[in-house]
Design goal:
The structure is a homodimer of 455-residue chains.
Chain A lengths: L2 H11 L1 H12 L11 H17 L3 E6 L6 E6 L7 E7 L19 E3 L2 E3 L7 H15 L7 E7 L9 H6 L2 H4 L3 E4 L11 E6 L1 E10 L5 E2 H4 L6 H10 L22 H7 L6 H8 L12 H6 L3 E10 L8 E2 L2 E10 L5 H15 L5 E10 L2 E2 L5 H14 L4 E5 L4 H9 L4 E3 L15 E3 H18 L1
Parallel strand pairs in A: 3-6, 3-7, 7-17, 8-16
Antiparallel strand pairs in A: 1-2, 2-6, 4-5, 5-18, 8-15, 9-13, 9-14, 10-12, 11-13
Chain lengths: 455, 455
């Protein structure tokens, strides 16, 4: 029996113990947004420290931040093996509305094959799966790769301290890549690796004209209307083919090659599914790309909100003094929020007419991220999935943003392997969050394979 | 001494009496919007009946309507003379904010040359001026023209009953033209006749797409965004030259001829004044027309309000399910709201893309109106101004809408001579409304001339 086989055997024999560990940490209500749970946050961090100690991890430390601490640990004695930085967050979403829970959110309860509790899937379950895989290995063997942990307590409130923490601990956190098990699977039968995330540049465009709201009868026709002007400006930001017209917008966009397009075409996401999920009468996007590519691999520009003048019931003949639109652009590598804000400003400068003043306010940005699909971490994870599920994972690009992934790429210079064993129907952020236990146990096995694949 | 001279002399001798009449009616708080003043409305109507009786008017009657009554009277014994329908409204705006009044709104108070009270200028003063001119004539002579009165009590609440009243009393109200002294003068030295008003077609455009608000990361790029779509639609409704692009929009627009343009160019309204009044950084409007023409003689399209998605503080990455804009078009003869609504619907039908649904809701329309500047009423009033002020009046087109004027043109088939003796600084609708008495007395004289000019 090889060491790897022994580890897999250990995992099989200790299913109950792993589950008890998970239940233990799920009982601590580590709701990061609620100051009343400050002690529970620390208690969770200390629980993690204890587990990491029991696994022989070193340099374990709770690093304070302005809000909730970061837990660090490492084990760096595998010669000629890569170093993986494991990212996780030990905080959870609030449990409201409490009365919709069938069993209490912080009393983990098994019903059929699922464990129900807040944080079961997002993401204490994923952290405990990783710790369980490591335990299965270290009880029988030296660890096959170098490993570091960075476990934060602020993901559910937007990770306000993490970028600073990374900036000031670059050396400590240096690694070959990051394992981030905070992404899920497309289904229990479909192991999934998310290798790219879109970034974000979120702005407000303000157009002001007259010094005060005017009577549209007394002045309409001789005065530039800020609302009409805003609509013309924003209306021109996308052409008939769904291309964005900001100057230079596509200059830095990495194209998707034929091989990647073939890979993306395998994803079980088609027009019918997207129409069902969105309730949209018809899909529409950038010409020449499939909906999956439009959402995952291509940038876009959406109005998120707009407001001007009179919006109540009935007819008020006001010519508004000002108009505002919230506009966000989803970015793909190698766009940056800073460059895109500048392109937006340039567009407005080139197209804004006389008679109004226009201002672009940058609100909130995040870098896009991408991992090479033939990188050491991705290949190790892909092979691990294949060993357990008997088939290669699907490779997915995600249209949303996980800022930590882009920040890590920018600050630490490392790519992330985004994966995990949560399922689409896990009701994360909602009442009755659950974790599918058969999938979770397969995930522990896959992680054992993953670490050996790195060695 | 001619009859006309006797009448002018009577007016000179009875200045105090006329003023006392005016004060008497100003003391009745005929606030039409406030149900608490329902009795005061009736009291004012009865006061008018008494005055009309004292002038020898006939067929005097208070016609009830769903809210406040219409006072009718006539005198139809002038052979071979035209019939003038005098329009007025005996209701006033609310007095709020009361504490900003220097003297109480319903205690008419003279300070220097002004009489201060709610309704002094808008428009009890104008009604009493007309009654005083008639009194000056009938005390010495038969009345030189035929005359009818239609005095309503709902102008300040949008004249909800008047169109129906006119529809059901077409015969009773038949006349050659209407005298409507509810418009003002450009200054005390500038007698003014407003001969055209713009109409209105006020609509809402609703664009709906997804069945619910979506996450802009998870779906943005493959779904038609209703806010972007609305902005593109509305942004295209005006071209770079300020021309409206709705199909057929200008087909019925009467052009202004060279003579009229020369007349309008005399108005003391220039770019500097409009910039000051609006606080707009620069004026802009339909190419080829002056600002005065753009406001008075040309149609336009303004967004009055717009709303979609998230409009609070900060960045919410929502892809909104719907978007709405309030859009109003100011119309000029011979456009009609019905036709313009149809043009708007046609534009939306031609330009709305797949993936969204668009609906145009017609909210509120009013017909434009114009009076021939060589019509009998306009010439009589113009000559009357010249006799009293020693100069011809300025002819003005008004950008706003007075629905009763358009409705009268449509229902009764008659044009209106819009004039009056209010001044721009009379603070109508505001605290400390006032009437300039020297101008008012000149107005009474002008009306005496006017009625003799008709005879």
């Amino acid at each position: 029996m090889t060491h790897q086989e022994k580890a897999l055997s250990y995992a099989k024999e200790n299913k109950e113990k792993f589950l008890d560990n998970l239940k233990e940490v799920l009982e601590i209500p580590s709701v990061s947004t609620d100051p009343a749970h400050k002690d529970d946050m620390l208690k969770t961090a200390e629980w993690l420290v204890e587990k990491l100690e029991s696994l022989g991890m070193e340099n374990i430390k709770i690093y304070p931040t302005p809000r909730h601490p970061v837990v660090y640990a490492d084990w760096l004695h595998a010669k000629d093996a890569p170093t993986v930085l494991v990212y996780g967050h030990y905080d959870v979403q609030p449990e409201d509305p409490l009365d919709e829970w069938i069993t209490p959110p912080f009393k983990p309860t098994q019903r059929e094959a699922s464990l129900h509790a807040r944080g079961a899937s997002d993401m204490k379950g994923q952290i405990v799966a990783t710790l369980s895989a490591i335990e299965s290995i270290v009880k029988n063997d030296d660890f096959p790769s170098n490993i570091k942990f960075m476990l934060e307590g602020e993901e559910e409130i937007g990770s306000p301290s993490l970028a600073d923490f990374m900036e000031s601990h670059k050396e400590l956190l240096s690694a070959d890549f990051c394992l981030n098990p905070d992404a899920g699977m497309l289904s229990a039968d479909t192991p999934t690796i998310t290798y790219a995330l879109r970034g974000l540049a979120y702005a407000e465009l303000h157009v002001t004209g007259p010094s005060h709201d005017l009577h549209s009868g007394l002045f309409g026709g001789a005065v530039r209307n800020p609302a009409n002007t805003l609509m013309k400006l924003v209306g021109g930001m996308k052409d008939e083919d769904g291309k964005i017209t900001l100057p230079g917008f596509y200059d830095k966009v990495r194209d998707v090659d034929a091989e990647e397009r073939a890979e993306l075409a395998k994803l079980p996401v088609d027009e019918a599914l997207l129409r069902e999920q969105t309730g949209s009468p018809a899909l529409w996007g950038e010409k020449g790309y499939s909906p999956v590519e439009q959402i995952g691999a291509r940038p876009t520009l959406d109005v998120n909100g707009m407001l001007s003048g009179f919006t109540g019931e009935g007819a008020k003949t006001v010519l508004p003094a000002k108009a505002m639109a919230k506009i966000s652009m989803r970015l793909v590598p190698d766009q940056t929020p800073e460059e895109v804000y500048e392109q937006l400003r340039q567009y407005v400068k080139e197209n804004a007419p006389e008679g109004v003043e226009c201002e672009v306010k940058a609100l909130h940005g995040g870098n896009p991220s991408i991992s090479e699909r033939d990188g050491v971490g991705v290949v190790a994870m892909s092979d691990a999935f294949e060993a357990v599920w008997g088939k290669a994972p699907l490779f997915k690009r995600e249209g949303g943003s996980i800022p930590v992934v882009g920040d890590m790429q920018k600050i630490l210079g490392i790519e992330s392997v985004l994966t995990g064993f949560g399922l689409p129907d896990d009701r994360i952020h909602s009442p009755n969050e659950k974790l599918d236990l058969p999938t979770w146990y397969r995930g522990i096995d896959a992680l054992i394979h993953f670490f050996y694949n790195l060695g």
